[in-house]
């Protein structure tokens, strides 16, 4: 395994965050509604991890360091784990385990359905993230994992619905997502690679 220290450091950072939030809740340091704070923090954490996962390839292109790619899958799986904890927190703290209220909840707060769709997408990606799935799916694997961009859009829409009054924070994440989507355009990603190699391939092509 390459970059064992780097991988372990990323693991420790990301795994300790929910434990830290739980510790704060235990210490009554999360305010009058700790359940809601936990659900919100885990949701925001899942979005941050999703954007971090998508940043690994552009960072590798820009810096040439393969360590970014060594933690990409781990970050993606952590994103799924945070989203799963976010969903569990919602069912336990906000819904109080009353599953019969779920239909009424979906009618009153349709953003839950949007988040649910995003979660289904994340589940598909997590289930097909192994090398075995990669081999089995062959060329279709890339197509399936292209779903990640749809998931980002669903997650942002879901968040916007919740934090309408705090649009600044949302705009920050949306800006990063827009930049990452832009980097998917072949000419932009080629320009990024040329920044590293010191040759402006785009310029040469334009001539
Ligand atoms: C079945 C799946 C999901 C359910 C039921 C769900 C439910 C919720 C609920 C109820 C809230 C608002 C909590 C409140 O403040 O009252 C929320 C907020 C949020 N969720 Fe989800 N969600 C789901 C999936 C996701 C996914 C997949 C992501 C991201 C990848 C996500 C990211 C967020 C974010 C960023 C917020 C706003 C947090 C904040 O206020 O800072 N959610 N979600």
TrEMBL record:
Stretches assigned to the Ferric oxidoreductase domain: 47-155
The protein's required cofactors: FMN; heme b
UniProt keyword Flavoprotein, yes or no: yes
Subcellular localization(s) per the UniProt record: Cell membrane; Membrane
Single GO term (MF): metal ion binding
Membrane topology reported for the UniProt record: Multi-pass membrane protein
Cofactor info, note text: Binds 1 FMN per subunit.
GO biological process: protein repair
GO cellular component: plasma membrane
Entry function: Part of the MsrPQ system that repairs oxidized periplasmic proteins containing methionine sulfoxide residues (Met-O), using respiratory chain electrons. Thus protects these proteins from oxidative-stress damage caused by reactive species of oxygen and chlorine generated by the host defense mechanisms. MsrPQ is essential for the maintenance of envelope integrity under bleach stress, rescuing a wide series of structurally unrelated periplasmic proteins from methionine oxidation.
Subunit structure and binding partners: Heterodimer of a catalytic subunit (MsrP) and a heme-binding subunit (MsrQ).
Family: Belongs to the MsrQ family.
Name this polypeptide is given: Protein-methionine-sulfoxide reductase heme-binding subunit MsrQ
Species: Stutzerimonas stutzeri (Pseudomonas stutzeri)
């Amino acid at each position: 395994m390459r970059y064992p220290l780097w991988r372990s450091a990323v693991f420790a950072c990301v795994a300790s965050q929910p434990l830290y939030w739980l510790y704060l809740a235990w210490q009554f340091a999360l305010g009058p509604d700790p359940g809601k704070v936990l659900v919100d923090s885990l949701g925001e954490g899942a979005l941050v991890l999703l954007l971090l996962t998508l940043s690994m390839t552009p960072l590798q292109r820009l810096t040439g360091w393969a360590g970014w790619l060594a933690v990409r899958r781990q970050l993606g799986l952590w994103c799924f784990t945070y989203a799963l904890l976010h969903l569990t927190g919602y069912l336990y703290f906000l819904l109080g385990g009353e599953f019969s209220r779920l239909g009424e909840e979906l009618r009153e707060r349709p953003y839950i359905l949007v988040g649910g769709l995003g979660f289904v997408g994340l589940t598909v990606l997590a289930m097909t993230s192994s090398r075995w799935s990669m081999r089995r799916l062959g060329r279709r694997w890339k197509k399936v994992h292209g779903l990640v961009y749809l998931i980002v859009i669903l997650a942002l829409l879901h968040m916007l619905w919740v934090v309408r009054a705090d649009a600044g924070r949302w705009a920050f994440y949306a800006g990063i997502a827009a930049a990452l989507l832009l980097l998917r355009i072949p000419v932009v990603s080629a320009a990024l690679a040329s920044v590293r190699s010191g040759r402006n391939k785009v310029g040469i092509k334009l001539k």
